[in-house]
Amino acid sequence: MGMPKKRVIVNRYRCAYCGACIAVCKFNANELVETFLMIDEEKCNGCGICVKVCPMNALEVVS
Amino acid sequence: MKYDVVVIGAGPGGSLAARTCAEKGLSVLLVEKRQEIGAPVRCAEGIGKKDLQRFVEIDRKFIAAEVIGAKIYAPDGTEITLTEEMAGNEVGYVLERKIFDRHLARLAAKAGADVMVKTTAVGMERTRDGVKVKLRRMGEEFDVECKIVIGADGVESRVAKWAGIDTTLKLDEIESCVQYLMTGIDFDPEYCHFWFGNNIAPGGYVWLFPKGNGSANVGIGVMPALANKSPKDYLDEFVDNHFPDGKIVEVVAGAVPVKGEIETAVADNVMLVGDAARHADPITGGGIANAMKAGYYAGIVAAEAIQKGDYSAKTLRKYDELWKNDFGKDLARKRKLQQKLIKMDDETLNKIMHSLAKCKLEEISVKAIIKEVLKKHPKLLWDLKDLFL
């Protein structure tokens, strides 16, 4: 049994689809599809760098 | 579908690139992932007068306001007014990007470029003599073949990654931004306004850019590496203190790359333009002017490469030369200046700004301001003196 995997979730009501999170993710885990932020759970390791850059406080690391 | 060039992203950089390619006789497709070009805006919309005039005829339709100078507020609240020697001349415009971006895209179309909106580039692969770009439009995927891809896909650029140019930003290479369009606030509409301070906007600043009819863009950029709360929290605090009765009629967010000059914006078959190439100014955060210049240069080089039938990185390197000679060096020295400024405490910032009180500058530019500071406090920026004098 491994540790529960960390991942990032997006609060859709706060996200202003600006792309800041994408610019800092070296795992290419997130993508702005038009104006909809998608986070690829396979690629995201929950490092949380995107949480720090989000202007709207819309992202959160969860286990 | 086959084109000489596919341009990804229809901001000012992409549209200028597409227009230039078309004017040079290339077949070009301009692709925009959003359903509306120019919206949602991710920009404070300010630009210098000369920079704008270089590539586009001024049309009142996309000018929201004109300004004659800047007012800077030191951390202790001291107000400093900066104007140019040639008093009375407007030095800058505040654009209506929704109209401006569409205007530029239309100019590209008029020159002969094809345009597709609500169309996302989802991948790219090199073929024997070019590139296959995978596009998705309203859920349907299809391929477009071309010789050259111009990535003008913004701060979140995917083209850069696909081409193997690592432009991932660190937390001290990006400004995280929020902006409110506000009405019912009291300000001098003849000026752009800037507030500095480590408690107001760590590693960045708060701006107010007039947009006509008593409204203004009130926004903030902070450097995430130095911030201890989100930009929105900082901005809300600022608005509560300065414009408690103002009404917010629009909210936009964004991020500005402030990494400075990158080593190369070129790979085989690929050129990057504007924010995708980290072309924004590390001090001011301004990006429109450089993006348009870069788009123009990329178009010129694309035409030359197509003519030669050689789309290798080696040939496209000419584009690197052009943008680096024009503004690359400026990006590099502004990055150095930024590294210095972000380490200054409020007391030092106050001292610097007080020395600028009522300055008549040759022009309103970071360079001109730094020259003044160097005259009065040579020690503070001593190691930068050769870069700015």
Taking the sheet with the most strands of chain A, its summary is: 2 strands, antiparallel
**Quaternary organization:** heterodimer
Please indicate the count of domains of chain A: 1
Low-pLDDT stretches of chain A are none
Q: Strand arrangement, largest sheet of chain A?
A: 1-4
CATH architecture of the domain at 5-43 and 97-170 and 262-334 in chain B: 3-Layer(bba) Sandwich
Tally of contiguous helical segments of chain A? 2
Secondary structure tally: strands of chain B: 20
Order of helices and strands of chain A: EHEEHE
User: According to CATH, what is the class of chain A?
Assistant: Alpha Beta
| Main beta sheet of chain B | 8 strands, mixed
Question: Which features does this protein show?
Answer:
heterodimer, A: 63 residues, alpha+beta, Alpha-Beta Plaits, two-stranded antiparallel ribbon, 4 strands, 16% helix, 25% strand, globular, B: 389 residues, alpha/beta, FAD/NAD(P)-binding domain, 8-stranded mixed beta sheet, 6-stranded mixed beta sheet, 20 strands, 28% strand
Structure description:
The complex is a heterodimer of chains A (63) and B (389). With 63 residues, chain A is an alpha+beta fold. Chain A is built from two helices and four strands. Chain A has helices spanning 20-24, 49-53, and strands at residues 7-10, 30-33, 36-39, 59-62. Chain A starts with 6 loop residues before the first strand and ends with a strand. Chain B is of the alpha/beta class. The N and C termini of chain B lie far apart (52 Å). In chain B, the strands form four sheets. An eight-stranded mixed β-sheet of chain B has the order 17-13-16-15-14-5-6-20, sandwiched between helices. Chain B has a six-stranded mixed β-sheet with strand order 8-2-1-12-19-18. Chain B has helices at 12-23, 49-53, 97-111, 159-162, 231-242, 288-308, 313-341, 346-354, 366-376, 385-388, and strands at 5-8, 28-31, 46-48, 63-67, 69-73, 79-84, 92-95, 114-116, 119-127, 130-137, 140-146, 148-151, 174-183, 191-195, 205-210, 216-222, 247-257, 266-267, 270-272, 360-361. Chain B has a domain at 5-43 and 97-170 and 262-334: FAD/NAD(P)-binding domain, CATH 3.50.50. Helix content of chain B is 31%, strand content 28%. The interface between A and B is medium-sized, with 23 and 34 residues.
